[in-house]
Design goal:
Order of helices and strands: HHHHHHHHHHHHHHHHHHHHHHH
Low-confidence stretches: none
CATH class: Mainly Alpha
Radius of gyration: 22 Å
Distance between the termini: 44 Å
Strand content: under 5%
Number of strands: 0
CATH topology: Hydantoin permease
Largest sheet: none
Mean pLDDT: 85
Number of helices: 23
Number of domains: 1
Helix content: over 70%
């Protein structure tokens, strides 16, 4: 292993073990355990990006009136934007070996950190449910191929859903190292499956011309802008979750270069490529089947070759499993653990996530493209302000210097007022208010369209002003 740079030396954990703010899952990662290299992070992002929800993003934008290149451009730009806070927040994870909820203690206080942690956790529970519903749908479609009579079994989709849910829970029990193993071997395989599906569509439709000839419905710049702004916010919102809890992964990095380059190589190109596959294949279905089929599970179930359809559905199910565990379990498991470190371990936090993911009723969020895009915009208004505060604190207030031991102890530097940094809480509330006020005040609806951006800059600036004055 090459020398690790920009990593603070291991700290003595013994004085921390009796603290109510400490458990082994939240502890700083030792130098010896930082084994994730550039490929691991690129593979992580490829594995998380190559999934059905990515495929559906561009299809959702097409449904809102964009043409294919407008949709792909919006997705690419959104991912470039969200990569910035992603890499900025990742730095502390690599330097200090700490997860997101512990990192949040530096800005929100040792108890106040539970506020952003719970925001992130409940959003992740919603995503866990969505991905599990999609994975269950893939299993249900595979069963229909194997046993045609299964299609007439009304409880079939629910059995498949809970079967996929159980697989997720079993992986949660195995721990985070299994996640690295899953992503490393499945990421290249999933890219190959996506390209194979694109080749099939290209061949059956007679080339890219017929596939991509559909014009957009947004004829004027004004019409385009009204759709583009909330859509761009939604694209940023898609990974706004990981832009917060990326330290949960980068605390295992060998170096800052490994995590930063790995993420830059893995995220924007993969999201753009797989979104293009979604656009191209969906467009091709109009030529092949006479109707647009935006759901790849439905599309694959129409294949005349059962074996090929089964293999492809298995691949999509595997991709969904990878994304679900990496993107929607690691963070909330740590967040719930941070809520009660003495009682809630990573595994218990993951199981809580799995249960709440069902109670959120994800099938309702997946009813149509408007609800799906609306879900992304809405929660971005909660997470953007958190990112603004944490980045402002780490880079402009702390100058990237954190007293790691004090993050785990009461009455020390990050105690603030009874464990809460009230200035961060005020900035958070005001940022969320700006981001979401358009929901209840129609003339200010345009602010909601910019939810993540408005919340990010409002909270970040207010936090800086309050901290400078304090």
């Amino acid at each position: 292993m090459r020398p690790v740079r920009d990593i603070i030396d291991n700290i003595d954990l013994e004085p921390l073990r009796g603290s109510p703010l400490f458990n082994e899952d939240l502890a700083p990662v030792s130098r010896e355990r930082r084994t994730w290299g550039m490929y691991n992070y690129a593979a992580l992002w490829i594995g998380m990006s190559v999934c059905i929800t990515t495929y559906l993003l561009a299809a959702g934008l097409i449904a809102k009136g964009m043409n294919w290149w407008e949709a792909i451009g919006t997705i690419f730009l959104g991912n470039l934007i969200v990569l910035i806070p992603m890499i900025l927040n990742a730095h502390a994870g690599t330097r200090y070996g700490i997860p997101f909820p512990v990192f949040a203690r530096a800005s929100f206080g040792v108890l106040g950190a539970n506020i952003p942690a719970m925001f992130r956790a409940f959003v992740a529970c919603g995503w866990f449910g969505i991905q599990t519903w999609i994975g269950g749908s893939a299993i249900n479609a595979m069963l229909v191929i194997l046993v045609p009579g299964w299609a007439h079994f009304s409880a079939g989709i629910w059995i498949a859903f809970f079967a996929f849910w159980l697989v997720n829970v079993l992986i949660i029990i195995r721990g985070i190292e299994m996640i690295r193993g899953l992503e490393s071997w499945t990421a290249p395989f999933m890219i190959a499956i996506g390209l194979a599906l694109l080749f099939w569509a290209w061949q059956r439709a007679g080339g890219f011309g017929p596939m991509l000839k559909q014009p957009g419905r947004l004829k004027t710049w004004g019409d385009f802008w009204k759709v583009f702004v909330p859509s761009l916010t939604a694209m940023v919102g898609y990974w706004a979750t990981l832009s917060l809890n990326i330290p949960d992964f980068t605390r295992f990095a060998k170096s800052q270069r490994d995590q930063a380059v790995g993420q830059a190589v893995g995220l924007p190109p993969t999201m753009t490529l797989y979104s293009f596959i979604g656009v191209a294949v969906t467009s091709a279905t109009v030529v092949i089947f006479g109707q647009a089929i935006w759901d790849p599970v439905v599309l694959l179930s129409k294949f005349n070759q059962p074996l090929i359809a089964f293999i492809a559905l298995f691949a999509l199910g595997t991709a969904t499993l990878n994304t679900n565990i990496a993107a929607n379990v690691v963070s909330p498991a740590n967040d719930f653990s941070n809520l009660w470190p003495g009682k809630i371990t990573f595994v218990r936090g993951g199981i809580i996530t799995a249960i709440l993911g069902v109670l959120i009723r994800p099938w309702r969020l997946m009813e149509n493209a408007d609800k799906y895009i609306g879900w992304l915009v809405g929660y971005s208004g909660l997470l953007g302000p958190v990112a603004g505060i944490m980045i402002a604190d780490y880079y402009l207030i702390r100058k990237k210097m954190i007293a790691t031991e004090d993050l785990y102890l009461r009455g020390r530097f990050y105690e603030f007022y009874r464990g809460f940094n009230l200035r961060a809480v005020i900035a958070l509330v005001l940022g969320i208010g700006i981001a979401l006020i358009g929901v209840v005040v129609p003339p200010l609806r345009w602010l909601y369209d910019y939810a993540w951006f408005g919340g990010f800059f409002t909270s970040g600036i207010i936090y800086l002003v309050l901290m400078k004055q304090g």
